[in-house]
Amino acid sequence: MKQYIELCEHILQNGAKKEDRTGTGTLSVFGYQMRFNLNEGFPLMTTKKTAFRLIVSELLWFIKGDTNVKSLIAENNHIWDEWAFAQWVESSEYNGPDMTDFGRRAQQDDEFSRQYQEQMAIFQEKILTDDQFAEKYGDLGPVYGKQWRSWATTTGGTIDQLRNVIEAIKNNPDSRRHLVTAWNPEFVDDMALPPCHTMFQFYVADGKLSCQLYQRSADVFLGMPFNIASYALLTHLIARECGLGVGDFVHTTGDTHLYSNHMEQVKEQLQRTPRALPILKINEEIDSIFELEVKDISVEGYDPHPRIKAPVAV
């Protein structure tokens, strides 16, 4: 992952100090691009352990058009928990300890961290066992899956962007319109978190499928390793669906930042030597991208350095 290491070094050397929505503060650069040849191995971070199973379950969640954290929590995937949790603790129905600014406070106050973990466990249990609670507080609004699979039209219908782009790749591979967008201005304010990875485009040449993602906001230490692996996986899955090989994954980012409370972790990661990339394995008995389950997708030969923990800015 030489490209990623170079990006981290570039931000540390050239980044501008900026404030942000979370109040954490960042070092940021604007406009950056990395290119990964997917034939050289699957781009899963090796300088720190990255949970591939979580990447798979989140991507399949998008692909299914789901927007409720219930199915993620059932898969023991807690990537989106904080945003759903915030909806509950900010509501009039919540009567527990004050959870204001829980993301930052949990990192600074051991007693508050204990209370936060208790309330989060209560929240997760209620999501799994109370359908009405899950419907009210587990749904994140019209986030990625909704836009990919059920984009609302002005005539009251919906557009399945993902299925349409797959059919277009199969039937008109040279088209320059193989696009899927998650940024829907009409509904941005209804989303728990407006899409960070806003649009992606596919390109077919020499029997290979390439993908370029435009990401408006990139949390380089925590989020970006997931984003790279997720869209690399999506490229593999759609290439397989369309009878193509894989080409490049091109990652283009807008506000590309390191949070101020991730600096020591980044420096630790930069001291590590990258290892060989793993190989992606997909169950050959499942033909359709829409029928795949988490157990059908894995990597072999993944030998990363240990995980490095860092707080999530919510």
Radius of gyration: 20 Å
> Low-confidence runs (pLDDT<50, min 5 residues)?
none
Q: Termini separation (Å)?
A: 27 Å
CATH superfamily caption of the largest domain: Thymidylate synthase/dCMP hydroxymethylase domain
Question: What is the total domain count?
Answer: 2
CATH class of the largest domain: Alpha Beta
- How many individual β-strands? 10
Mean pLDDT: 96
Q: Classify the helix fraction into a percent range.
A: 25-40%
Strand content of the residues, in percent? 15-25%
Helical/strand content category: alpha+beta
What does this structure look like?
The protein is built from eleven helices and ten strands. The protein has a six-stranded mixed beta sheet with strand order 1-2-8-7-6-5. It has a two-stranded antiparallel ribbon with strand order 3-4. It has a two-stranded antiparallel sheet with strand order 9-10. The protein has helices at 2-14, 52-63, 69-74, 81-89, 102-108, 110-129, 131-138, 144-149, 161-171, 223-241, 263-270; strands at 16-18, 26-37, 151-152, 158-159, 179-181, 197-205, 208-219, 245-259, 279-282, 297-300. Helices cover 38% and strands 21% of the residues. The chain has 314 residues and is an alpha+beta fold. The protein starts with a helix and ends in a 14-residue tail after the last strand. It folds into two domains: 2-67 and 142-300, 2-Layer Sandwich (Thymidylate Synthase, Chain A); 69-140, no CATH class. The longest helix is centred in the middle third of the chain and has 20 residues, at 110-129. The chain is globular, with a radius of gyration of 20 Å. A hairpin with a 7-residue loop joins strand 1 and strand 2.
